[in-house]
Q: What sequence folds into this?
């Protein structure tokens, strides 16, 4: 009766062969991977240089104005400005720029790739059924399982950081774009067809504007997921606020961890409110 | 009738949930009387191997139940102080910032040295200095001998993210040796044309070295022995100024061999029932060479830690004689041969 509680057989798996083949793959296609790596590093450096060029006072002013515009309340704008001032006051300004550069690069790639994929799978059920398990895997596979091969192919630092963040953050974009377009009232699409629009015209002029609030929620969620990966990417050599948190955790320096963690939270809160404000303003008025 | 059926199903569900809860709870209390020892598992191979060896002896001779708690070295050290972890077979005393104060304050017990002939420092692959005819690699830095020479080669150890600079991989952020290595980096004036790159985690560091070695590219990285990585890849330790107690903390000289000790929590060490195990642990002593031997056997034969521990003790019965009383040593040898 022992076989009821202990598995009676084991499939013999040659895991070493998998290791050897992944390593051989990384050596053979080194040229190809170096090109991608160079591209990603340049993208992140571009964002970092732009952010570093903006003087801190101008940056805080821009955030104040954006907060005010988006929420119609001057108090919100002031709040965001004060929170960002805190980050600068504890000496983390340039670290924040490094982290923001990686986040922005990942979000940009997620939007550029995720938006078309989301539209594509909203058109048919078959595409949807194929994508769903892929999306589920991308969100739940433990990060280091695909990060170690990514490090073998792309090295350490900014390139695998952007890849890891994109894999995690692209999923809400795809899902919510898909959802947004599927949720449109069928009658509106019918009406647009009745007035003689082609499929593409209907997509661009009717469906996407109707789905915009959901799609903007997707952008917002993508941003949040990207920020949540900040500390994980520091474990593969990405510098910035995540590395600060990691060092603090490794040395059991609780105070330092709290300060750097709070800075990450502040960035998340400010970006969340700003993009949510955009969600509200993108809602198409349906009454009159 | 439907109402009755729903009720019956509801009652059956609740009853079975209660039954499962009761069964589940009673399963634990059965093991309350056996002796347990909780080993710290810092994640690296030599630690797991020593846990397996000591655990094998504890199991065979004194009927202990073995548990392992994984964690990073700092977290496990805190666990040892609190008594949540019982035994740590590899306390790398120099890598824990608060170790000497904790020991002086009596927060843990040190049971002697496990091994103290290890190396740590900056390694480069042998093919960078000597070339490798088999793989078609030309030596890119044939005159590189010491870490002082390293700053002359930023173009060999290129940093891909910062054009024109070289890259040196440092230690895991948070280890004391990371601070020392960074001070050494600044002391040698390397920040002019090198970047001190913090790999973030042990996995990242070994992946970087593995990747570079497989591709035949140059890499300069911190690492330590005994490890599976240095057992597998042929790397050369860059020389440094001879070790000096006063100044090595500022990075001016080579790193000393770390005194890797066996530590136990006060709770475990003071308990009367653990006395024989504590005596065994106090006598437990190996060496870097022995540990590497065990790790090399493991890598080549593909055995797990327990099998390797058995093989190790069979290969070296003299260790059992040194660690145990004559009767216990005989009992252990008999148990191994079964």
A:
């Amino acid at each position: 009766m022992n076989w009821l509680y202990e598995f009676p057989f084991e499939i013999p798996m040659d895991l070493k062969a998998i290791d050897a083949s992944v390593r051989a793959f990384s050596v053979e296609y080194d040229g190809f991977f170096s090109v991608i790596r160079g591209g990603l590093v340049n993208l992140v450096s571009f964002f970092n240089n732009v952010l570093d060029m903006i003087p801190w006072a101008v940056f805080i002013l821009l955030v104040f104005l954006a907060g005010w515009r988006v929420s119609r309340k001057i108090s919100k704008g002031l709040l965001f400005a004060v929170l960002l001032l805190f980050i600068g006051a504890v000496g983390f300004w340039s670290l924040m720029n490094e982290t923001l550069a990686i986040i922005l690069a990942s979000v940009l790639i997620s939007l550029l790739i995720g938006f078309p994929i989301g539209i594509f799978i909203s058109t048919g059920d078959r595409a949807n059924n194929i994508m769903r398990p892929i999306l589920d895997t991308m969100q739940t596979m433990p990060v280091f399982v695909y990060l170690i091969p990514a490090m073998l192919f792309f090295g350490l630092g900014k390139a695998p950081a952007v890849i890891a963040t994109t894999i995690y953050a692209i999923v809400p974009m795809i899902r919510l774009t898909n959802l947004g377009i599927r949720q449109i009232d069928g009658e509106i699409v019918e009406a647009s067809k009745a007035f003689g629009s082609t499929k593409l015209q209907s997509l661009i002029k009717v469906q996407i504007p109707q789905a915009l609030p959901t799609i903007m929620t997707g952008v917002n969620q993508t941003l949040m997921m990207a920020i949540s990966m900040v500390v994980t990417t520091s474990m593969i050599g990405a510098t910035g606020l995540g590395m600060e948190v990691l060092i603090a955790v490794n040395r059991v320096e609780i105070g330092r961890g709290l300060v750097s963690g709070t800075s990450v939270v502040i960035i998340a809160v400010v970006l969340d409110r700003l993009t949510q404000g955009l969600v509200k303003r993108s809602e198409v008025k349906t009454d009159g | 009738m439907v109402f009755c059926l729903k009720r019956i199903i509801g009652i059956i569900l609740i009853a079975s949930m209660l039954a499962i809860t009761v069964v589940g709870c009673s399963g634990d209390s059965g093991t309350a009387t056996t002796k347990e020892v909780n080993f710290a598992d810092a994640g690296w191979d030599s630690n797991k191997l020593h846990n397996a060896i000591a655990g094998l002896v504890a199991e065979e001779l004194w009927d202990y139940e073995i548990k392992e708690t994984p964690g990073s070295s700092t977290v496990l050290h805190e666990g040892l102080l609190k008594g949540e972890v019982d035994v740590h077979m590899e306390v790398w005393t120099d890598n824990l910032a608060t170790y000497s104060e904790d020991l002086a304050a009596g927060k843990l017990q040190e049971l002697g040295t496990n091994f103290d002939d290890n190396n740590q420092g900056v390694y480069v692959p042998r093919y960078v200095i000597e070339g490798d005819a088999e793989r078609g690699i030309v030596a890119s830095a044939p005159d590189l001998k010491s870490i002082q020479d390293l700053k002359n080669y930023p173009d060999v150890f290129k940093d891909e993210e910062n054009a024109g600079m070289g890259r040196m991989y440092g230690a895991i952020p948070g280890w004391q040796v990371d601070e020392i290595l960074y001070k050494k980096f600044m002391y040698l004036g390397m920040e002019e044309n090198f970047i001190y790159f913090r790999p973030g985690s042990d996995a990242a560091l070994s992946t970087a070295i593995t990747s570079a070695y497989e591709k035949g590219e140059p890499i300069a990285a911190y690492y330590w022995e005994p490890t599976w990585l240095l057992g597998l890849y042929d790397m050369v330790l860059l020389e440094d100024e001879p070790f000096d107690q006063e100044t090595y903390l500022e990075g001016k000289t080579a790193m000393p061999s770390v005194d890797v000790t066996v530590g136990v929590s006060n709770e475990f060490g003071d308990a009367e029932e653990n006395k024989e195990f504590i005596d065994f642990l106090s006598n437990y002593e190996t060496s870097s060479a022995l540990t590497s031997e065990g790790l090399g056997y493991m890598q080549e034969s593909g055995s797990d830690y327990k099998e390797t521990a058995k093989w190790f003790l069979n290969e070296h019965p003299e260790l059992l004689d040194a660690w145990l009383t004559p009767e216990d040593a005989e009992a252990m040898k008999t148990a191994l041969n079964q």
